Amino acid sequence: MSATAPAKLSHRELESEVERLRHENDKLRTIRDALIRQVDRNHDLTGNSYKLFQSVAQIESSVEKRIQRLARAMSEAKIARRQLQHAIDSIGEGFILYDKDDRIVLCNRKYRKIFPELEDLLKPGTHFNDVIQRAAETGVIAEAVTDPQSWIAARIAYHRTRRCQFQQLLSDGRWIQISERATDEGGKVTVVSDITQFRRLEDTRRLSNLAQQSDILATTVASIAQGVMVFDADLNLAAWNSQASMLLNVPYMDMHAGTNVRKLLRLVWRHGATVGRERRDAVREWIRDVKKRHPLRIEVSHSGGRVIATNFRSMPDDGLVVTMTDVSPQINAAKLLERSNEELEKRVQERTRELTRLNEILQDEVLRHEKTMADLERTRKAAEAANLSKTRFLAAASHDLLQPLNAARLYLSALETSHFVGQEGHELLDKLGNAFQSTEALLGTILDISKMDAGGYQPKLAAIDVGALLETLKAEFDALAHQKGLQLRLVGSSAVVWSDAQLLRRIIQNLLSNAIKYTETGSILLGARRKGRALSIEIHDTGSGIPQQDREAIFEEFRRAVSPTSQMSGLGLGLAIVRRAADLLGHEVKLHSEVGRGSCFSVVVPLKTTGPQLRAQQEQDGAGTDGRRHDSRPRTEGHLFVLENDESVAHAMTTLFSHWQMESVTAPSYLGLLDLVQHKALTPLAVVADLHLDGDIDGIDAIILLREHFGHDLPGILVTADHSRAIKERARAKRIEYFSKPVKPAQLRAYLFHLSTEAGADLVPAADPMPGA
């Protein structure tokens, strides 16, 4: 052990080490004496006794050296301790060090001087709890005088924290600041500073501020508009302002310090103030009973209609303060308002009686209107039933109507080969055959229109090679164009679209036929151009053009944009067929025309973006045409989700779906539908949504959110009366089918059938009748 190591030991540890070495030295002396005696008795001539004695002597010498080193270490430790004690005694603050067991290790002279009552305990080994217990018993701390146990608990709580600082007042009037901090070994260092001078300076400064504030307060009270009177504990007037005498109508000279409150009240009553007897008794009782002085307010009336609101408040020293405010303007305003309210109530009652009479008249008008509407509704239903009956009759009688015409054509063919007919007869037969041919075409067109209106025509959607279709139509119409001296030009296309081949051919054929029919000179251009995910098939001509006012009428039955004196053939059904077929397929027909320069008719058809092999691979991988992964299982079961906030429209749509043997649910908002779906655990087939719904989510966003909720590309149909381009482009960008209101049942049914064809199951029966279509 080094000579400097013991200096780090505490005084108690050094004393323990000295005691242990003394005990060991005593044992060694006992052993030495025993060995010497043993040598004297045995007279060992071999020299072993001497060797043993020599060993004992060496041990004794080693022990003596260790004792000397220990003595030097103790001396150095005493010197270091004495130096440390001198150092902490020279500190201007009180210093005390506790070990990890909360026992005193060191305490300086300043600490003992601050707490002379505790001097006998301020020595090494004394526990912290003993020190504070003595402090509480002797009343050293002012706070401990009234409740010593509470102070002891608070002091122990401070001592247990790693770091704290607080101030305390001693019983002799001194102020101290105590700062404590934990040591690394788990002990605690406490520093106590005398801050009496600082506290006295602070108190002096605060009293000076209070004097200044008192002057400010007196000036403020004298300047305010309210009256103020202050009475001391003996109920004598101590302070007041001039406004108080003015508001109470008491001469200022009659108010002086020491005037009793009861005498002052008698002065107030004597100078004309009036107040109810009950309120007067309440003031007397309030002044008499100090324990029942709750805030009191009375209104004092003076001559001339002046009203003074007087407030009585008690003060901590049993005195009282009275404040007065002139509330005459508020009282007058309240009375004026009360009169206005009474007049307003009378006017409201009169107007209510008038409105009641008008309401009775209006109810009578509503009843008559409802009766008229009911009659109109019955008339409308009868007209719809008659129209539906007519349409069904035409659709059902097509075979019977065309059969006699077919027989007549056979008889005409027989006459043409007969030798009984001369040259003039053949000319008549040719004209008759043309008439029959026109009749057949007209009847076929009318039947097609009736069939489409009745929903009996079910489109068969498939991939169509546009280039091949246009080339075929050009070959068919080349001769007719050449006969009129027109040039029919074709721009080839490699696009593939998704449509019904027969209906699409009929649309382009009618548009091309019209272009040749109504063009006298120039050329016809047939081609197609891509527009995003769709293809616009266009027919340009150099005809006379169509005036603006006729551009909608030409799509109606038996309407043409030519003068009545024109010799042009046809009854104006071609474009009617085009419009119905396009609506049935969900295609858009456009017209651009300039009078005198020509016209351009076009039909916009969706492109088929994937081929059969790619589609099969995507279905196998579970991915859609947009490259995202979707559920590839056929959607053969589930409900149609209808989002419509108009109850009548929603009911009509669900009734129509019921006639088509399809299950559906409806809700006025996205959140309402989501709650219904989650509550009933429904599976969707498709979503039919209006654009404008209840809540902040419109139809397009609702379809997108439902797709995210169910995790697959749910088919969406937007049915809206908003025909703006922005809405159509927004729906197209989200792969949502757009239908304009009023929606055609046949068109909607065709699209649902198209979805069923894609899904691999018949969601909509193809051949059943369409009630309400």
UniProtKB/TrEMBL annotation:
Residue span(s) of domain Response regulatory: 639-756
Annotated region described as Disordered, given as residue ranges: 612-635
EC numbers for this chain: 2.7.13.3
Keyword Phosphoprotein found: yes
Domain Histidine kinase: 396-609
Pfam families: HATPase_c, HisKA, PAS_7, Response_reg
Recorded catalytic activity of this chain's protein: ATP + protein L-histidine = ADP + protein N-phospho-L-histidine
Coiled-coil annotated residue ranges, if any: 11-38, 334-386
Biased composition (Basic and acidic residues): 626-635
Name of this protein: histidine kinase
Organism this protein belongs to: Chelativorans salis
